């Protein structure tokens, strides 16, 4: 059952990622693009974890954790830049 | 102000945080053994010792039991909020009535306010957007705002009062 | 795939978590693509995607806890991290949007002017 469900879930997440890409391309403002990138990061975490399950490795969490970290720091840094014009005051 | 050299404040400024770091380390290496527990404890003591100069005042958790209840309520509300938001997204956009409202805070502790703002962002149809430190208010955006007073009262009763109890 | 030796109840639970998570995350991203202005778009990802990925991670946690010996708890770490950071990044993005004076949809109530 799980062998059948994992590809289905991956497909759903891939469609979600495509929707994020659409928002990334359309904009209209730069903040929308930051939001789209942030969501793309979150969805890619799920895709990585699902791929990990499908291959039966169980070793890719570090990757998921790293992407979560990078996504968060990147989002905050870009928002901060828009707020102040500087990343570090 | 530096605490005295011999006091606990100097060597172990945040006992709870040290414990939390040790647990986090065990979670991260995904292995429970004496060696890793010791390493985690060493990190838990070392990291706060080096960095506590950068931190604001410690928030006091007065009552841990209401905190647990609060987390449970939060978990249920996250689930409920997701169903609500999902339905709103699926229905045509003309049914939406988005709006901002200003939430007057009663809490004064920074950490408690952070938790409240995060809670507001994770629960039904609301995202906290701006914190005004002078007026002590939160600017909140609601996906579907029917009655401001009702929304404010709901947040106060469901989240702020329990938090007040925990951090008083 | 070696999921044959799993009890079917556990399989059902894991499958439900994975499917539910994927559906919720898809709805969140659908909201991001469809909703009319930035402030409403902010709601989809911060709630739905976080819960969706959280469910997927819990499903994976259960799966690997059974596959490998011992409990695999690293996914819980990612879940906690996501739930702690999603409101913060939403807050920062909302602030940036207010700062850039993004317009709301017509009919938005009390849009602040700064």
Automatic annotation (TrEMBL), chain A:
InterPro entries: MrpF/PhaF-like. Pfam families: MrpF_PhaF. It comes from the Bacteria. Coiled coil: none annotated. This is K+/H+ antiporter subunit F. Keywords: Antiport, Cell membrane, Ion transport, Membrane, Transmembrane, Transmembrane helix, Transport. Its main location: membrane. Belongs to the CPA3 antiporters (TC 2.A.63) subunit F family. The keyword Membrane applies. It is found in: Cell membrane. It is a multi-pass membrane protein. The chain crosses the membrane at residues 6-22, 34-51, 63-83.
TrEMBL record, chain B:
Belongs to the CPA3 antiporters (TC 2.A.63) subunit E family. It comes from Halomonas rhizosphaerae. InterPro entries: Cation_antiport_E (IPR002758). Its main location: membrane. It is found in: Cell membrane. The lineage of its organism: Bacteria, Pseudomonadati, Pseudomonadota, Gammaproteobacteria, Oceanospirillales. Keywords: Cell membrane, Membrane, Transmembrane, Transmembrane helix. It comes from the Bacteria. The chain crosses the membrane at residues 68-90. This is Na+/H+ antiporter subunit E. It is a multi-pass membrane protein.
UniProtKB/TrEMBL annotation, chain C:
The chain crosses the membrane at residues 12-33. InterPro entries: PhaG_MnhG_YufB. This is Na+/H+ antiporter subunit G. Keywords: Membrane, Transmembrane, Transmembrane helix. The keyword Ribosomal protein does not apply.
């Amino acid at each position: 059952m799980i062998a059948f469900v994992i590809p289905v879930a991956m497909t759903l997440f891939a469609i979600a990622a495509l929707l994020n890409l659409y928002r990334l391309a359309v904009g209209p403002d730069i903040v929308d693009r930051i939001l789209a990138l942030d969501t793309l990061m979150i969805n890619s975490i799920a895709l990585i974890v699902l791929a990990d399950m499908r291959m039966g490795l169980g070793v890719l969490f570090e990757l998921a954790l790293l992407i979560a970290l990078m996504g968060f720091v990147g989002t905050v840094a870009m928002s901060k830049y828009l707020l102040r014009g500087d990343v570090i005051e | 102000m530096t605490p005295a050299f011999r006091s606990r404040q100097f060597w172990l400024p945040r006992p709870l945080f040290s414990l939390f770091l040790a647990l986090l380390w065990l979670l991260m290496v995904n292995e429970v053994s004496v060696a890793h527990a010791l390493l985690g404890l060493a990190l838990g003591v070392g990291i706060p010792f080096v960095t506590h100069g950068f931190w604001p005042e410690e928030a006091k958790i007065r009552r841990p039991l209401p905190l647990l209840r609060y987390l449970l309520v939060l978990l249920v509300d996250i689930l409920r909020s997701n169903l609500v938001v999902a339905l709103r997204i699926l229905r045509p956009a003309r049914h939406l009535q988005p709006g901002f409202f200003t939430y007057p805070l009663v809490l004064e502790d920074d950490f408690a306010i952070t938790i409240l703002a995060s809670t507001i962002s994770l629960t039904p149809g609301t995202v906290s957007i701006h914190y005004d430190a002078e007026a002590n208010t939160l600017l909140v955006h609601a996906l579907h705002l029917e009655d401001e007073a009702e929304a404010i009262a709901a947040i106060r009763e469901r989240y702020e009062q329990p938090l007040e109890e925990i951090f008083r | 795939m070696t999921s044959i030796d799993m009890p079917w109840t556990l399989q059902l639970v894991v499958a439900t978590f994975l499917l539910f998570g994927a559906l919720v995350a898809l709805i969140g991203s659908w909201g991001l693509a469809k909703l009319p202005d930035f402030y409403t778009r902010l709601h989809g990802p911060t709630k739905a995607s976080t819960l969706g990925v959280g469910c997927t991670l819990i499903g994976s946690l259960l799966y690997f806890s059974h596959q490998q010996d011992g409990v695999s708890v690293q996914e819980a770490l990612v879940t906690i991290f996501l739930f702690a950071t999603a409101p913060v990044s939403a807050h920062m993005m909302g602030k940036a949007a207010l700062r850039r004076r993004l317009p709301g949809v017509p009919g938005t109530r009390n849009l602040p002017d700064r």
